[in-house]
Amino acid sequence: MGLKAVAVLSLALGATSVQAADVTWRVGGGMWMKDENFAQFTDLLEKHKVRGKIAMFIATGHSPGKLELLKEQIDVLKTRCAQLRARGFRAGPNILCTIGQGKEALDLQADVPGAQFLVGAKGDVSCCRHCLRDPVWREKYVKPLYEMLAKAEPDFIWMDDDMRLIWNDVPGPACFCPRCLALLKDRLGFTGTHTDLAAFFADEKEGDKRRRGLLDLNREAFADMYGFVERTVHAVNPRIQMGMMDGGRGPSRIDGHGYDTNAKALSPKGEALLCRPGGGFYRESDTLESMVGKANGVGYECAWLPDFCRPESEIELHPKSMLYKSRATLVNESLVYIVAGATGTAWNFFPNLDEEFAEAMLPQLDAAVAAQRKADAFVAAAGRARPRGVWSGYGRYGFAGNRCGGRNGEWFELDWDQPGFEGSELQWIGIPAAYREEDADVIAPNAPTVWSWTDEETKRYLARGLYLADEAVAALVARGYGEYVGFTVGEELSMDAVERYAEHPLNARLVGKIRTSCASFLKGRAHALVPQKGATVVASAEVHGKTVAPCVAGTFVNKLGGRIYANGFFPFARMAQMTAGMHFKRVFRWLSNETLAGEVASYHRAAMWVRGDMAAVVNMSIDEVTDMEIVLHGEKWANGIRELGVAGAPLLEGVREGAYTRYRLPCVRPWAPAAYSPGEKPMTR
């Protein structure tokens, strides 16, 4: 039985093992509604040897369409599903609007008397999005819509990412309609109006409990709606596979971080569930570093999803103009997101054949099909394993720790710019990322994350390895944990300050070297640190050769056995020098007590993920690299490594360095991932 056949069998049985990469082709009505377009589309599928699922968009626009108009599409959908199945494809609808996406095609929008539109935090009422909890909307729109979809006999029904509470047509997150405000009163004791919400959640004494409470309420609302949809569909046809999307990790902060509860609501028996994690990255000109940023979002969500989920990242052009991304970027994206945690790819670049020639997308189509071999190899090696490395400490209640530090000083105004490990220079000098406590070799929180931790969590984390920025140090001290940190935060430093490495084991070959901030151009702040008893100074700060802070970074081992590295000098930036890279890689190895999953040991801009039987690097430059070196931890990686998805790839031999093995990689292409599996047998040396 071939890999694809095994994957289909595993999916049908609801198994959690993943033998080959999942693939879906998401296509708009311009590909399948008209007979002549559908004939051209299916001809493309056959000629270009396309395999996978076909997800057909059902929509009149980004507002919920009139049911009678959607019925016309669903009637055609039923025929298309049968025709595609006859050609060997699984097929079903991608329903764009369950509660509504945004202001588009409002003249085609459904009019449901008595339905509750979503209400924003300022009291503004949406014109196109509806409250998740509203029973009128559910019974009069959601239920008949999904019954029609189920009766079309699809293989699956995949819901889109309108299931979120931000990115609305009204200011702030939602929903704060009368029904939702009543829940706030019953559960959290809120008695005011919209103008009182900010102060209610900012309350010094009760604010944390209230913020957590709202996240609980939001998570419950999503799970309840997903459960309603699941019951509606499976009452008609229990064999239909369900699928969900979200707006990415950003919206999930206020949505309640309900990746697992949403999945279990849509798949109460643990059947294989289609998922699309991650936000948007639409154009190459949005900078390729956005690809690694999205990879963190995909990886984070995948790490929190239950094992029965089949997460496919979406590779999208918006609008569908092929010049927005090169073939290389489309393929590299797909593979990078698999490296971070996905089990496949949902391709979304097919144009509307009423406005574009099919030939415009043929190079992209062929490149995507050709990438399947590597994707299969990556997924077979990693499956649903979670990455190991450095975790930001952000969890289910992470957003409660924002403590009104968002825009305009209000808690629920999302602050997208909080610095942290993910996406920082620490990550792209080759220190691997993790996304859950269970997979963390080191924890590197920012201050809001520290404030989100319970006392039980904080004590548990303080017994491990913690990389603490100055603001995180201050947060822990303010919370009463100063004795475990070893430092307090001193005065803010001049923008002219530089960091100078002191005599310390972490600074071998580096003593006397400096790290500059360029703060006058690049902005940012630095602080002196005040060492407490038992702490050791790693670096000081100078201005024009004069010491202005005897300590800006240091180490401490607390009475719980936890290892602390406190850093007051640009803790997540200005690390692109070789000297700084050497220093910080040693720091994270020390914090992990020499158990860090791996690192890029050479001086290159490259991100790393280690999960399951796959260790991967992503070359974050336009140079082809032939001298990259990596080290990998543990006996599993000591017997050689072989590149995944490359026919005839040789077994690379490494050099043991204690608990690690060092390898030199032969070639990593620009902005591309290179992934390796462990050797099968002990090497002869």
Secondary structure elements and pairings:
Layout (H helix, E strand, L loop, with lengths): L2 H11 L8 E6 L1 H4 L2 H13 L5 E6 L8 H20 L3 E6 L21 E3 L5 E6 L4 H17 L4 E4 L18 H11 L8 H6 L4 H30 L4 E5 L3 H7 L3 H8 L6 E4 L12 H16 L4 E8 L10 H14 L3 E5 L13 H9 L1 H11 L6 E3 L33 H4 L11 E4 L3 H6 L2 H8 L2 E5 H9 L3 H4 L1 E6 L5 E4 L12 E2 L3 H4 L4 E5 L4 E8 L2 E12 L5 E5 L10 H14 L6 E3 L5 E6 L2 E6 L9 E5 L7 E3 L7 E2 L2 E3 L2 E5 L8 E6 L7
Parallel strand pairs: 1-2, 1-10, 2-3, 3-6, 6-7, 7-8, 8-9, 9-10, 11-12, 13-20
Antiparallel strand pairs: 4-5, 14-17, 15-16, 15-18, 18-19, 19-20, 21-24, 22-23, 23-29, 24-28, 25-26, 25-29, 27-28
Written overview of the protein:
This protein is of the alpha/beta class. It contains 21 helices and 29 strands. The strands form 7 sheets. The protein has an 8-stranded parallel beta barrel with strand order 1-2-3-6-7-8-9-10, surrounded by 4 helices. Strands 13-20-19-18-15-16 form a 6-stranded mixed sheet. It has a 5-stranded antiparallel sheet with strand order 22-23-29-25-26. A hairpin with a 7-residue loop joins strand 25 and strand 26 (about 650). Helix 5 (about 135-150) runs parallel beside helix 8, helix 8 runs parallel beside helix 10 (about 260-265) and helix 12 (about 325-340) runs parallel beside helix 13 (about 360-370). The longest helix is centred in the N-terminal third of the chain and has 30 residues, at about 205-235. The protein is globular, with a radius of gyration of 26 Å. The two termini are about 35 Å apart. Mean pLDDT is about 95; it is low at about 1-15.
